[in-house]
Amino acid sequence: MTTILDKLLLYSPRETEEQVNNFVDIVENLQGKVDCVVAHALMKTFSQAPDYGTQESVMSTLASGDPSVVTKAILEEIPRLVKEAPRWADTLMINQYLFNKEQVLSILKDCPMPIKNAVLKAINKPEVLSFEPKIKELIEYINDSKE
Predict the structure, then answer these.
(1) DSSP track, 84-146
(2) How many Cβ atoms from other residues are within 10 Å of residue 88's Cβ?
(3) What span, in angstroms and rounded, lies between the C-alpha atoms of 80 and 43?
(4) Three-class SS of residue 66?
(5) In the chain, what are the domain boundaries?
(6) Whole-angstrom distance between the N-terminal and C-terminal Cα of the chain?
(7) Contact at 8 Å (CB) between 114 and 76?
(8) What CA–CA distance (Å, rounded) separates 83 from 71?
(9) What is the pLDDT of residues 3-23, one digit of tens each?
(10) How far apart are CA 62 and CA 142, in angstroms?
(11) How confident is the model at residue 45 (pLDDT cuts 50, 70, 90)?
(12) What is the rounded CA–CA span in Å between residue 39 and residue 74?
């Protein structure tokens, strides 16, 4: 599995058509095999660099994993994503909250304050709230947990 994950990160820049194709092939072959190590490796592929639509396959593969494992990986990466890939930070949090609300709330409850603050930074924006009003519940949950 390590070799596959090394290749995933090798092709992650997706600078050529061959890299894009190899990246997507690897990601699709990880469907249903998402454990903690795979989830973290997939999360490392999110950046602001052009991805030519390949990150949607990453999101699909992440969705094939155990929701608790994937939620933990997303939350652990949120501080980096807020800085390096804010578009993905909000997208990942919205999707995870909408489809795995209980896991998000349960795991977030025990997260350190820097992760909670990063989640707020990712989702507490007018454009996010207008796109997905239900995310306000998550904002209120985090703010209540800080008191």
Answers:
(1) H-HHHHHHHHHHHHHH-HHHHHHHHHTS-HHHHHHHHHHH-SHHHHHH-TTHHHHHHHHHHHT
(2) 24
(3) 10
(4) coil
(5) 2-145
(6) 43
(7) no
(8) 19
(9) 888 888 889 889 899 999 999
(10) 24
(11) very high
(12) 8
Q: Are 38 and 1 in contact (CB under 8 A)?
A: yes
Distance, in Å, from the CA atom of 19 to the CA atom of 56, rounded to the nearest integer, reads 16
Q: Tell me how far apart the alpha carbons of residues 93 and 75 are, in angstroms, rounded to a whole number.
A: 8
Please state which CATH number belongs to domain 2-145: 1.25.10
DSSP letter at 56 equals H
Report the C-alpha gap between 96 and 135 in whole angstroms.
Answer: 11
Tokens representing residue 36 in the block: 């903690």
- Token digits for 131? 């796109």
pLDDT digits (tens, 9 = 90+) for 64-114: 999 999 999 999 999 999 999 999 999 999 999 999 999 999 999 999 999
Positive/negative CA dihedral, 48, 90, 36, 114: positive
Residues sharing a CB contact under 8 Å with residue 58, sequence separation 6 or more, in sequence order: 27, 42, 45, 46
Does residue 134 register a pLDDT over 80? yes
Q: What element of type H or E holds 43? A: helix 36-43
